[in-house]
Amino acid sequence: MSEHRYVPSEVEAKWQEKWEASNAHDTTHDPNKPFYYCLEQFPYPSGRLHMGHVRVYSIGDVVARFKKMHGHNVLHPMGWDAFGMPAENFAIQHGVHPNVSTHDNIAFMRNQQKQLGLSYDWSRELATCDPDYYKWTQWIFQLFYERGLAYKKKAAVNWCPECSTVLANEQVIDGECWRCDSEVVKKDLEQWFFKITDYADRLLTDLEQLQGGWPERVITMQRNWIGKSTGAEITYGIHGRDETLTVFTTRPDTLYGVSYVVLAPENELVQKLIEGYAGAAEVQAFIDSVRKASEIERTSTDTEKVGIFTGSYAVHPLTGEKLPIWIANYVLPDYGTGCVMGVPAHDERDFEFATKYQLPIVPVIDPGHQDALTEAFTGEGRLINSAEFNGMANTEALTKIVEVLEQKGIGKATTSFRLRDWLISRQRYWGAPIPMINCPSCGTVPVPKDQLPVLLPEHVDFGVKGKSPLETNDEFVHTTCPSCGGAARRETDTMDTFIDSSWYYLRYTGKGDGTQPFDTEAANNWLPVDKYVGGIEHAILHLLYSRFFTKVLHDAGLVNYTEPFESLLTQGMVVLNGAKMSKSKGNVVSPEDIINKYGADTARVFILFAAPPDRDLEWSDQGVEGAHRFLNRVWRMVENHIPILRKNNLKADASGDAAKKLRMATHAAIKKVTEDIGTRYQFNTAISAIMELVNAIYAYPEGADAGTKAEAIRTAVILLHPAAPHITSELWEMMGETSKLYALEWPVYDESALAMDEVEYVVQINGKVRERLVFPKEATKEEVESQAIASEKVQALLEGKSIKKVIVVPGKLVNVVVG
RNA sequence: GCGGGUGUGGUGGAAUGGCAGACACAACAGACUUAAAAUCUGUCGGGGUUUCCCCGUGCCGGUUCGAGUCCGGCUACCCGCACCA
Predict the structure, then answer these.
(1) What superfamily does domain A138-224+421-497 belong to in CATH?
(2) How far is CA A29 from the centre of its chain?
């Protein structure tokens, strides 16, 4: 009977053109409406979309469209995290300039996004590789520099040989490069750092603000990454020398148990200590061997602890005892002071080390038994062998001993963080040049602001090993010093691309007057982002960096809040047969194929329906078929009722039983879908609620009130619109409606429609369901109780037993407790 | 080792402490059809003496009139951190 078949390609192209031509998705600024910022992490323009992209965008689009219909001004932008190494590697292999391949990729992917019917305000699109954008990335770099948050230092840094560039700590995963999985090695280089450690405390405490809005595990991961420890720094004298050494410890209460002191092999003091020592050569050989070890070998708990005596002795700050100074591989150079006091009796690592090298093990906290220690005792207890502190609880001694040290000026309470400064230099081409100049007489000088951006030169030699590509362009390198006018050299490193993505969400809100990176008023108006949707893989990296940027920009007076993302939705992966889709596994399902075969609406509905957003989604071709079947079912539902849907003077009369039931189903669906999308962000159950309504409409008896049916159909189409915008727009038009569905007001459910005249009670005996009885909704507790007990079924089961208690939950159940 | 999360039919998944398995997928049966597809209808956790009853949400225990849900312990898997003193 249906002449007019559902052809997704036609319907989708039609509506995409209409929306584009009418700027349907431009951001509104109605002062009477609340403002809502819905943001999905912008993609790297890799070439084409994968299913993971389709999933994030589908989720974001449902939220954005729902909020618009729900009476909000919605900012829903899209852009490109466009700098990065793949484009540069592609250039090396195929000779295509990154600027060309990147823009080609962007054009292709933008087109794919449009095919998905995503409601972006394209007028705000940005790409981080555009000079108009990276000018401001450079501006922000200089802001950091002016505020003492960008500095250069020579350090042993993480070097990825495959990418031939350095990496930040966060970008080293299990000793391997986050991007290419090559083993990372240490290299001594002078590099630029951002002083994120200055913000460690605030990055930690502000996590509290995010409770509730962020997944607990992301908060935990950040907390662990920042890794705050409270303890003390204690200064030891060195026997026969003027120098001192300072250790960091979380256990100053065990100070009397120190039997040796250990330095990291890299510690500068080591070289002084071994000068003139007979065993210096051996020590040096040891240091070299440790430094050769990879990051994995060095930091794994499985690695055997090895060390060597330096020939020098430290002086115990309270007892004056001589303590041998060792160096060992288990002491890290860049945590705490790079120097540890060894308390073998109460620290597992020290115990292992002391046992191996036969160093004294002196218990100073009563382990509760007389036997010799076979392992470190790390529990709590009372102090022993600790002079005047004997008998004191160790928790109390912890502060008391620090007090004594403080009075003597040889110790202080302090905290230590695991977070390290952010290494931001990259020896690569396709990134924002660091806007600094090195002058032989003036030192490091910023490029004057009016000369920004420092443009990337087009012609460079990409493939020279061990050289930043920018170094190969003489014209770029040679410049004059802004301060003295003399010949000077530019910085030839570019910035970590995570810097580009640390502020892009601000740029979307407004470009401002050209004196700063974004419009402060607009940014304050829209931010913090109300819903940020992205992958869990950024739990530390991007999310930590962006939080850091926001705090710095706040301190500089550029924004008036301290956290950028109020609420975070981390979507799970799209997997096939339990494995992440990847080219190498050959298990990739391409979005193009799905869109071509079924249309974007089907892809969206399937993805939203198949799993809750934060869980991994198992791809299922049959599931896609099911989603498509559902849309066809909706199509036929409308098509077969055009006459009653077009009669707009048709009044609904829900007085009959069937009509009353359908009206209830309609309003229950409105309630459920509104809550699921608007507050629970559980799109799978929202879709299932719409399916239930559609099923109820199909089951509606012939001849029952048509107006009620029309209302139900119209509602189902509206509720489905955020998930499947094209087909619903077409159906809306087929119904003879002239309004824009996307601009329609979201329906409000009628509480009274949900109230039933009669309620079914479950009657339990000792918690087991034995009977179901229907009562009028106004029946009192007493009536329900007595009638439930009086019922035939219950009476039969009560024979020979006595009623101990009866619980009545109004509107729900009766539980008769018998003995 | 530490921290976090998850365990429910053949599958994806539903269930403010109140009828476990909504909604789908798959499977099976039927209707329509010459036939198929599409569509529609029905069955669909296990077992039994089958109008009814018993068992069942990883395992053991607890709280409660009532536990998938709360508490304690265990176990398996996943994720993060991992010699951070």
Answers:
(1) HUPs (3.40.50.620)
(2) 29
What pLDDT is recorded for position A3?
58
Chain B nucleotides near the protein (CB, 7 A): 3-5, 11-15, 18-20, 22-26, 38-41, 53-54, 65-67, 79-85
pLDDT at A2 over 50: no
**A528: Cα separation from own chain's centroid:** 15
Q: Quick one: what percent of chain A has pLDDT higher than 90?
A: 61
- Give the torsion through C-alpha atoms of A54, A60, A61, A66, to 10 deg: 150
- CATH topology for the A228-417 domain: Isoleucyl-tRNA Synthetase; domain 2 (3.90.740)
Q: Which residue is nearest to nucleotide B25 (CA to C1')?
A: A623
The distance (Å) linking the CA of A248 with the C1' of B4 is 28
Helices (H) and strands (E) in chain A, counts: 28, 32
Judge contact between A196 and A213, C-beta under 8 A.
no
CA dist A247 and A249 (Å) reads 6
Domains A8-123+500-505+513-593 and A138-224+421-497 share a fold: yes
Closest residue, by C-alpha, to the C1' of B23 = A688
Query: How confident is the model at residue A175, as a pLDDT?
Result: 75
Separation between Cα atoms, residue A457 and residue A463, nearest integer Å: 16
**pLDDT for the residue numbered A808:** 86
Residue A413, SS3 per DSSP: strand
User: What beta strand segments (E) does A536-582 contain?
Assistant: 568-571, 574-576, 579-580
Report the nearest residue to nucleotide B79, CA vs C1': A217
Strands (DSSP E) found in A467-616: 478-480, 487-490, 494-495, 531-535, 568-571, 574-576, 579-580
Nearest nucleotide (C1') to alpha carbon of A329: B83
Q: Describe the crossing of helices A600-610 and A621-639 by its angle, rounded to 10 degrees.
A: 120
Tell whether residue A583 is among the known ligand binding residues.
yes
Token duo for residue A252: 């100053």
Distances, alpha carbon A212 to alpha carbons A60, A105, A223, A527, A684, in Å: 19, 37, 15, 18, 21
* DSSP code, position A739: S
Q: Is the pLDDT of residue A663 over 60?
A: yes
| Range of lowest pLDDT (A396-400, A538-542, A626-630, A722-726) | A538-542
For residue A620, pLDDT beyond 60: yes
Looking across all nucleic acid strands, the nucleotide with the smallest C1' to CA distance from residue A419 is B84
pTM score of the predicted model? 0.92
For residue A773, give the H/E element and its range.
strand A768-776
The rounded percent of chain A whose pLDDT value lies above 70 is: 99
Residue A126: which of A504, A546, A522, A518 has the closest Cα? A504
Å between A79 CA and B59 C1'? 50
CATH architecture of the region A758-818? Roll (3.10)
Query: How many whole angstroms separate alpha carbon A684 and alpha carbon A682?
Result: 6
Q: Note the pLDDT tens digit of each residue in A192-235.
A: 999 999 999 999 999 988 988 898 888 888 998 899 988 999 99
Distance, Å, A171 CA → B80 C1': 14
Q: Which CATH architecture has domain A594-754?
A: Orthogonal Bundle (1.10)
Nearest nucleotide, C1' to the C-alpha of A297?
B83
pLDDT for residue A1: 39
CA of A329 to C1' of B73 (A): 39
Domain A8-123+500-505+513-593 has CATH 3.40.50.620: yes
| Strand, helix or coil for residue A31 | coil
Backbone angles phi, psi at A93, to 5 degrees: -80, -40
Structure tokens at A71: 């009476």
Nearest-CA residue relative to C1' of B24: A626
Tens of pLDDT along A398-434?
A: 999 999 999 999 999 999 999 989 989 888 899 999 9
Distance A231 CA to B83 C1' (A): 18
Q: What angle do CA A555, A558, A563 make, to 5 degrees?
A: 65
